[in-house]
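Hi R.,

Here's the chain you asked about this morning:
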Amino acid sequence: MSFKPKILLIRQLALGDVLLITPILKQIYVDHAGNCEIDVLTMKPEAFVNSPYVTEIISPAQYLENRKNYHKTINLDLAYESHPDMHILDAYAKYSHGSIEKILDKQIGIFPSQNDTNNILQFINLTIAKDYLVIHMRRDTWPSRNLPEATWLAIVDGLLEITDLHIVQVGSAHEISFDHSPKLINCLSKLSLTELKVLIENAKCYVGIDSGTLHVAASTQTPIVSVFTSAHHKFREPLGRKEGAKFFPIAPDLPCYGCQSRLPPPITGVICSMGDPYSPPCKDRISVIEITNAVIKAID
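And here is the predicted structure, written out as tokens:
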């Protein structure tokens, strides 16, 4: 019987950061020609549903309770936080393989079931019933990544005016949505992660801000228009997509853009040094016109 190593891969939070370990996961599997068992310790198990590379998804509590023995443990908690001046995947690869050049497939992997696909295609055909874009209007814990609701409203109204697309709003129940047009469809808290991938995969464009949902979009070839503030887009941009897959980063017109990469590590949060820590100026310096123009280019 051939030796079958048991490997533990750790990344607990947050959703986007967890999704970005999926290329590492696949490469470990490929390195062993599939002759291995890979467990993932995470607090975001939805990122690995249906993954062909995962043996078991375990929570921190399960890990402490069971104490399985592993031949190798790769802990990616605080990996990119300790290297804020490089792309997240580059930082992960530094810990797992020594170099990002050893990661052959750099695209995020999400694996919808056939049922997921059928459900969303039916939703697209019967409920949306028209070409559409997907938008995620984040409201979360990092102040720099929460655009004012008035800015999002201006973006939505601009898109309603310049396109014929329906706008499907996604995110958690506490995030932003609007209902002042029949072309606006509210899907907040209604989709699983795998269903969200199928929805974005069939959209004309994805619009959002640096978040976990951006990285779901990065698992597709759909054009992406995304806002970035404290984290520079070159450290968050989608990798491994097909040549020609469109990506339009939108940044504030400020010299401090991407400040996160210049702060002393590890970076587990950003306190703005240029203004109110709870209302940093970067979130108020996003051009609505630049976003709507980018969408026009994306869907052209």
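One quick note: DSSP finds nine helices and ten strands in the chain.

Cheers,
M.
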